[in-house]
């Protein structure tokens, strides 16, 4: 583990707290979604080319779906798409191979999840990266307040700039830190929580639930964007989810009849608030010294 001390400021607005310096991982995140892999997000020598705004042009065959999901904010979504295929590629947040399919594989895939989010909800996006799905949801749903949670400084810098350029500072904030730091207030800014917590290609369901469920208010939901193995993950990690206070995980398909294939989401309601188990203090002898085995 390394420490990245690059400064990253906060975006003013509701829905979160300012970021602070924190420990970050130097390796790419573990992914359980085959549609988005670490290699997709990191450019390689064979991928190297000059990014072009032309890659962000909405394909005609996707125009109806885009209008359905983004409505009168489609132009704003197009501006974000251009940011992703230019600055996002240059900074290594989006792989060059992903630029030509930024609409179907990323923007529309994320926007479809909005149908599972109630009106006026507060949303925390864990491991936001380039803003997927958090920024997409903020664009598609101006009624939401969104906090983008991301530990890596170069990514939070991009997110802050994107929020400002897109004019979303009133409803979107950026928190630099890990999910556990956000949940416990370890950065000194106070704990965060939200009605909805989203995550895309962050980790297998057991680890993702460990990090994300503490951020969900009781009765709120974790929405994890997953791939074809979603049902297998639900079955494999049901015990862990239950121990963390989550209800029975359900696999949802979002955007049916609008996008093909629809987005697969694992939805978990936080039914109980489970306090973390704290390690026991060592026993002390009568003389006041600790007795260790």
- The total number of structural domains is 1
Distance between the termini: 30 Å
Which strand order does the major sheet show? 5-4-3-6-7-9-8
Q: Kindly identify the CATH topology.
A: Rossmann fold
CATH superfamily heading = Vaccinia Virus protein VP39
Q: What's the number of helices?
A: 10
Tell me the total number of β-strands.
9
Strand content: 15-25%
Please summarize the sheet with the most strands: 7 strands, mixed
C-alpha Rg, in Å?
Answer: 20 Å
Globally, the shape reads globular
Question: What is the architecture at the second tier of CATH?
Answer: 3-Layer(aba) Sandwich
Order of helices and strands: EEHHHHEHEHEHEHEHHEE
